[in-house]
Amino acid sequence: MNLPVVPVESTVSDDYRTYLQRLEKSSFSGDIEYSYGSRLAVATDNSVYQKLPQAVIHPKGINDLQTIGELANQHPQVKFSARGGGTGTNGQSLTDGIVVDMSRHMNKVLEINPEEGWVRVQSGVVKDALNDALRPYGFFFSPDLSTSNRATLGGMISTDASGQGSLVYGKTSDHVLGLTSVLANGEILQTQPLSVAEAEQQATRSDTYGRILRQVLNTCRGKRQDILAKFPRMNRFLTGYDLEHAFDEEKQLIDVSRLITGSEGSLVFVAEAKLSLTKIPKHT
After folding, report:
1. Closest to 227 in 3D by CA, of 206, 245, 244, 210
2. Rounded to an integer, what distance in angstroms lies between the CA atom of residue 261 and that of residue 255?
3. pLDDT of the chain along its 284 residues, tens only?
4. How far apart are the first and last CA of the chain?
5. Rounded to an integer, what distance in angstroms lies between the CA atom of residue 197 and that of residue 139?
6. Nearest-5° Cα angle at 201, 195 to 206
7. Alpha helices in 73-161 (DSSP H)
8. Is the dihedral of CA 175, 180, 182, 188 positive or negative?
9. Which residues, at least 6 apart from 56, have a Cβ–Cβ distance to it below 8 Å?
């Protein structure tokens, strides 16, 4: 039996080296690493796959993610993959491009609101660390998974993570109240549930968000009967985007966050999330 082997390749391709050199000279304030050891450390995850990246970069905040995207517009051959705890079992965070590691710096709990039962976090916060911070308030973030001591909230959102207890408490997507994300061109995208009337009004905008809302309204609402008739009913949406739940027909809501959740990083870099909380049970 031949096991997969990561190639011993210490050089970085010219295209990527040019991009990284320009990133170093930009306003980017995070860490840039392209030694073989740093690349090898993120060449594997919790899956059977292995892929050696060209570099690893560690942004410190939203501004750094914007810089990454804005500069990438001038280097269309450069590829990226966001990484949290590397606990995915399907190779979601692996790439032969650049790994954007959120866990080193973007790991802060930004706001806890026990009165309204929500928390705002950066995407690199580890799930168990979040629950440690919430425990004194009598709350916890309830989607459970076996890797909760290292899995990050951004990774959980990107894979719509769930595990033991999900039939009671739901999946990650059931607890996302809003997201702050960065598009591939560096634009910030704020998403939260909108009434259909508000979504239609916002869709008249000429910017990227307006175009996104027009597409969601045309597809998720306009073709809803086709979606319901042809798409299989699934508990998790990892084989495509969650077109069914981006439009809530009963409540007449549009929520672009439902498309981002479970999209495995293919649409945006998730920077921050507002999440609903569950009270810690008195009896278990």
Report:
1. 244
2. 11
3. 566 677 777 788 999 999 999 999 999 999 999 999 999 999 999 999 999 999 999 999 999 999 999 999 999 999 999 999 999 888 999 999 999 999 999 999 999 999 999 999 999 999 999 999 999 999 999 998 888 899 999 999 999 998 777 778 889 999 999 999 999 999 999 999 999 999 999 999 999 999 999 999 999 999 999 999 988 877 666 667 999 999 999 999 999 999 999 999 999 999 999 999 999 988 76
4. 46
5. 34
6. 130
7. 127-134, 153-159
8. positive
9. 33, 34, 38, 39, 41, 42, 98, 99, 101
Torsion of CA 165, 170, 171, 177, to 10 degrees: -140
Beta partners for residue 182, in sequence order: 188, 269
Closest CA to 74 of 143, 18, 124: 18
**DSSP-derived secondary structure letter, 266:** S
Per-residue tokens: 81 = 């993959």
pLDDT value of position 219: 97
Residue 64 near residue 30, CB atoms below 8 Å: yes
Domain boundaries, the chain: 14-101, 109-279
Angle in degrees, CA 154, 121, 86, rounded to 5: 25
Tell me if 145 sits within 8 A of 161, measured CB to CB. yes
Q: What is the CATH number of domain 109-279?
A: 3.30.465.10
**Four-way CATH pick for 14-101: 3.30.43.10, 3.40.50.720, 3.30.360.10, 3.20.20.10:** 3.30.43.10
Helix (H) / strand (E) containing 273:
strand 269-276
Q: Give CA–CA dist 234/110, Å, rounded.
A: 33
